[in-house]
Design a protein that fits this description.
Layout: H1 3-10, H2 12-19, H3 47-53, E1 65-68, E2 82-87, E3 94-96, E4 105-107, E5 116-118, E6 124-126, E7 132-133, E8 142-146, H4 148-156, E9 162-166, E10 170-173, E11 178-181, E12 188-193, E13 200-204, E14 210-214, E15 219-230, E16 233-242, E17 252-261, E18 271-279, E19 284-287, E20 290-292, E21 305-310, E22 319-325, E23 328-330, E24 334-338, E25 342-348, E26 351-353, E27 357-361, E28 369-374, E29 377-379, E30 385-387, E31 392-397, E32 400-402, E33 408-412, E34 419-424, E35 427-429, E36 442-446, E37 451-456, E38 459-461, E39 465-469, E40 474-479, E41 482-484, E42 488-491, E43 496-497, E44 506-508
Parallel strand pairs: 2-4, 3-5, 7-9, 8-10, 9-12, 10-13, 11-14, 12-15, 13-15, 14-16, 15-17, 16-18, 17-19, 17-20, 18-21, 19-22, 20-23, 21-24, 22-25, 23-26, 24-27, 25-28, 26-29, 27-30, 28-31, 29-32, 30-33, 31-34, 32-35, 33-36, 34-37, 35-38, 36-39, 37-40, 38-41, 39-42, 40-44, 43-44
Antiparallel strand pairs: 1-2, 5-6
Amino acid sequence: MSKRCHMAGMLIFPFVVAWVHGFPADAQNVTCTTRPPGDNSNACASTAFVDTAIAGISFPSLPLSIVNGGTGTSTPNLSAGANITITGMWPNQTIAASGGSTGSGTVASGTQGQIAIYASNGTTVSGAPACTPIEAFGGAGDNSTDNSTALSGALSSLSSTGGCIGFSGGIYKFNSAVSYTYPSTGFYNVTLSGSGPGSTQLLWPSTNGISFSLPLATQSFVVKNLAFITGSTNHTALNITDSIHQANVTQSSVENVTFAGQDLNGLNNDYWGYGVNIVNLSDVNFAGITVYGSYSGGSGNEKGVGIQAGSNGSVGQLAYFYNVTRSVFIYVAYGVVMGNHTQGVTVAASQFVNCGSGIIVPGTQADNSLLVSRDSQYNCDHSQIVIFSNIASVIATGNIFYVTPNWSGIDFNTAVGSQDHSITNNVFNCLVSGCTGGSGATGISMLGTPVANVINSNVFDNLGYGVKLSAGATYTTVAYNTFRGVTNSVSNLGGAACPASSSGNCISP
């Protein structure tokens, strides 16, 4: 066989995706023989071979040509027992027939792969889809239909281990908050999945959004690929409450989700009071989320919180392990709030822009430990990371902090001693007027009686203070940093040149 024929069999895959977004059944050159397994000659690949080669690969929804009984194309109304042929589909694709029959039907399989079809009332025509469309319960993304009852019905219909509810492109309006309590049946997960935050928007004009209550440590949730939109102020978009205080057996996640007011840019008065509020539930990952607060009051008057996570228990009743990656927080008062009795919050590769503060540990808290920030950018109006409660082990590395006058990059603003902090390889810079001098910007401020800390290999540029230590600081090393245009490099060191004595501080600028 010619190499041209070989190319038709093997290289049609990327070309067809870019051209027609499908794989027509007649794409194979019918004059070519089937290439048997292990035959690496230039013989043509059959349709069956190509289908086998791409089996198991997930593809987005693709344009379809649907033939109903051979009488025409487009989107037909299916009658009970109807036989249809669908071309242009990759294997294992799922489609929903929003205006279809309530009866059953059959799907031609062949080399195109099995297709799962839902009728308008949610009856499965064939196959088993990954997510049940909310349209199957009377929902609609037309910015008019109230989807509150539809979502409640979809949640109530899930199996004994939970399941997935799907939202296609559109604006799904909710006139009331939706609450759901998981059954106490062991392992259970609820997934809400959209087509992307730019396509799928869940809109609550005047109420809270979604609340899940989880009674067991074997339960979890996933929310992905959609946007939570509010038409009011100070409500909570996604509220998750666990009944216990311990690490979970399964992880939960919020992925590729936007939280915003209706204008989607944070410049008006609409904003979520909390994008996500987690109470007691441990092991939650946030990846690729975007939170817009409100900037209507101008600089210093930002409103809204991106993520708050913590425990409502007493001392020793902890919440654990929250990871925030590749996320953006804009115009919010606080990007991430590390709540009470919380251990293990990591923020990585994220941006905090035009906010009040990026990360805050509020005052009068207990049991806080291990706050990590790495490879992130902070450009907020007040202190970028501010800590009002005793905390063990703050680790900051590879970040850039754009500090403003009278505020700090990292501010340990507590009269109680904190300990075991490592702040290395960061940049602290001030780019506006009034940065230097006694009332200028500060890179790192440690008040109270901080113990056993390392401040090493950072860059401090155009600041009033590089490192501001309290007189009570002990076992603190400030070494190998770079100070440029800084009025006071290090204050209240109270120690000698490195290496330090067994109980003293040291400096090696």
